[in-house]
Fold these 2 entries.
Entry 1:
Amino acid sequence: MRLHMILPNVETEVTQAPRACRWCGSQHIYRWQQVAKRLRDTRVEQVQAQRWFCRTCGRTWRVYPVGVTQAQRSQRLAGTAVMLYLLGLSYGAVALALGAMGHPFSKSSVYYAVQAAAARVLGLRRAQVVGGVRTPALAGDLTSVRVKGKWLPLGVSVDDLSGQVLTIDALTGEDAATLKEWITPVAEQVGARLLITDDADSFKQVAAALGLPQQVGKAHVVRNTNALITALRPAALVDADGSLCALGLTTEQAVADLERLGALVGERDPGQEGELEESYRRYAAARGPGKGETASLAYRLRNLFLDRWNLWPRLVRYRTWRGPGGETIDGTNNGCERGIGWWIKERYRPMRGYKREQSAVNVSRLLAWCGNQLEAGACLLEVLA
Ligand SMILES: [Zn+2]
């Protein structure tokens, strides 16, 4: 797991005096008492808290050192529990590990510590894109995690230029209407000019509905195309069902068309769209299967060439696309794949599944948020403080 974990520090004395009354905001305050506080922490057993008094409203309050709250546990100890959980232990295993190190923790307190940390990750939901990021190139992808034995679809959006995860949301389905409802507010908030996705039909509809040009992840298309070519080639070599002959085509022509398709998709030269159209035209007259019939070889070739011809502009868009500031993209959806691999699937792997949908979303967001902070070197310190 590629996370920097920096645990909250714990100081034994208050080093920063309050400036105003926590109740009324008055500045007429003074330190009233120093009080010892027993603390459950990995290093410190006791710290000095202070009681302050307000002359204006007459009330008192406690001020704690850095890393200490009114809770019995320090933020460092709570942070250790969250860290062990994020590194892959179950709630119960975290409780056991901490207990063995002399810090008794119940399974439910580990759970609450993790959920509390996750709840403080404010961004990463669609209504509130992290840090008000703006980007012309928005990437979206879907993944799923098991919650109570069922697959829960998660939508992940990423700034394709920086690789930052922008949002993670639980979705009710993977249909175009649901995806549109999910992507629309994110696209508006970041000011997207381009949508990068895989080649699923539902994403195509979303891009069209939003009026955004689309780039489909090239690796995915290349893989799919090569798999189809490999599957169709043996039949094209012999024209077993006679459907090529019926169109006046030879097996050599069909094999050459398939090989050329593989080369075109591999090179992705924007100027070669016409060649795909030519290939499609050769098979355009192939008849579709009647009821109960299987599709003929010629008809399957027709569909393959038609589909790639239609897809072509979305496959090669990255070659010419420039953002308003001259930004460029590489035509992959690696940003999303990385976000999903590192922050959602990686944590999910050692578990049998989440028990609550919100927990699945919260933990994924917490991990992705930590990932975003990686370069800044801050992580649990900010989440827990
Ligand atoms: Zn006051």
Note: The pocket of zinc ion is lined by residues 21, 23-24, 26, 54, 56-57, 59 (CB under 6 Å).
Entry 2:
Amino acid sequence: MSQQTSNVTFHERVEDALRDQILHVALERTTERFQRLRVTGMGSLPNADAVRDRVRLIRAHTLSRLDAYLEQFAANVERAGGHVHFAADANALNRIVADIARTHDVKSVVKGKSMISEEAELNHALEAQGVRVVETDLGEYIIQLAGERPSHILAPAIHKTKEQVGQLFHEKLGVPVYTEPAEMTAAARAILRFEFLNADMGVSGVNFGVAATGTICLVENEGNGRLTTTAPRVHVALMGLERIVPTLDDLSVMLQVLARSATGQKSAVYTNLITGPRRNGEGDGPDELHIILLDNGRSRVLGTEFAEILYCIRCGACLNACPVYREIGGHAYGSVYPGPVGAVLTPALGGIAPWSDLPQASSLCGMCREACPARIDIPRMLLLERDAATRAGQMPWWLRFGLHAYSVAATRPALFGLAAWGARVGTRILGASNQGWIRALPPPLNAWTQSRDFPAFANESFRAQWEKYQGENQEQKRK
Ligand code: SF4
């Protein structure tokens, strides 16, 4: 797994994000709206809880027999006239796509939305061999024009305001400074229509692969996925090897929650089911279909205590629900997969050492687990990863020191009482001028107050309040 800005630390990226007022406006506008839409969308699903249980069961069952389902899927794709390739890692995937491009003398590629291509950094690999790649999902197109990386697994340009996009289109496409999203979409559509019709190869993601039929399912709202997969003469579909479902019935269960969890829609505008390339007598579709299944650490995660993260159907709901993501956005994570799912998946696939900060990017409030249509217990795995980081010696010295000091005090009641008294008095003095809220703590505690206030401790400790409460309670009972 690659990192976007390897020379900048996680904390520096977070500080930059917290200072970025435009980012806050963009995140607030969109995550809040997605959250509301998800609640309404799931509310429109009869027996939503039972459907979520079913989603979880199907994902667990599929992963428990993944090798058999992958074999069945591959056999059925081949039977329908497609080709299946297994890629052990990102380099292997890039080599396979590059070989297909070379074989077919491909000069230009249109690309639908695909997190796997981000994971493998496919665009760089193709561009290095002289192939022009054009993103066709509107969000991805914006990001490509801006020379940036996606900051959300579903809405790649979520960190940009419409005003920024209007200015970007003006600078890069030479169009007037549009203020309405519809005008910007029309400008992008005019350019992309030409690209679709002239591309030699289409590269798309895959939401699900159906083992029983060899069908791939792509869910989208813009129609660009349909054009990417049918207009060019070669279609290359990229999927993580965990994205299998056994049957079309199982697929229908996934589809009941995917769009609802993502955008609140009962169903996405386009649900494309593709089984093999164009057959004799059919008017549309590619001459060849290649499906590449990427491992890149996934098979290593299977059977571990992190396997549950592979249940993910990439709806993005946990990102929109996460109070940390909503403050810092996706780029601060530095990984291809941001937010709660990324904080678990990235270290699970790429090892804890380079990603030991990500599990700390959580308040453990559990909102991600509540929002997840597969009921993935993300907080449980975040705690396991924090433990793994500690065992790997990745915990910062100040945290190690702090926890050690706490464990010394917490096992000595007199010392604990003294420390609590000191904290009470100290924080009340510091917060006296601001109604009990401290604007700036002294170093090394000032990191907390760089972005929020700290409340002064209560006048009485919890233990003192509890003793008083019990005393009053008993007094009342006696009366
Ligand atoms: S972890 Fe759950 S909520 Fe988050 S993207 Fe995956 S399926 Fe959606």
Note: The CA atoms of residues 52 and 373 lie 5 Å apart.
